[in-house]
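Lecture notes, part 5. Sequence design as translation. It can be helpful to think of inverse folding as translation between two languages: the language of shapes and the language of residues. The source text, in structure tokens, appears below.
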């Protein structure tokens, strides 16, 4: 049985030695791969329903209301009356 190919494949070694020829296309392909991966994984996460968004918003509003109440209760504490009022509120809690 004779050989079908008379010559062996030959890769020009000069083209592999110059990284400037293949560096930019390889980096562009990697960047596109990362971008596509991030895009599809971000979309594949379970979407937050409007009810969950509403509950989160209500919880945040409640937290802000409590923070405002604490700030109002404790005041600036620049005078003795502010400190005494803050201690009374603290004792009630």
């Amino acid at each position: 049985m004779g050989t079908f190919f008379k010559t062996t494949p030959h890769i020009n070694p000069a083209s592999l030695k110059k990284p400037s020829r293949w560096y930019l296309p390889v980096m562009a392909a990697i960047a596109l791969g990362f971008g596509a991966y991030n895009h599809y994984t971000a979309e594949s996460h379970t979407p937050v329903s409007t009810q969950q968004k509403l509950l989160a918003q209500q919880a945040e509003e409640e937290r802000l209301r409590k923070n405002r109440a604490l700030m109002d209760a404790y005041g600036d504490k620049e005078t003795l009356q502010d400190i005494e009022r803050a201690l009374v509120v603290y004792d009630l809690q």
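The translated text above is only one of many valid answers, since several sequences can fold into similar shapes. Residues 47-92 form one domain.
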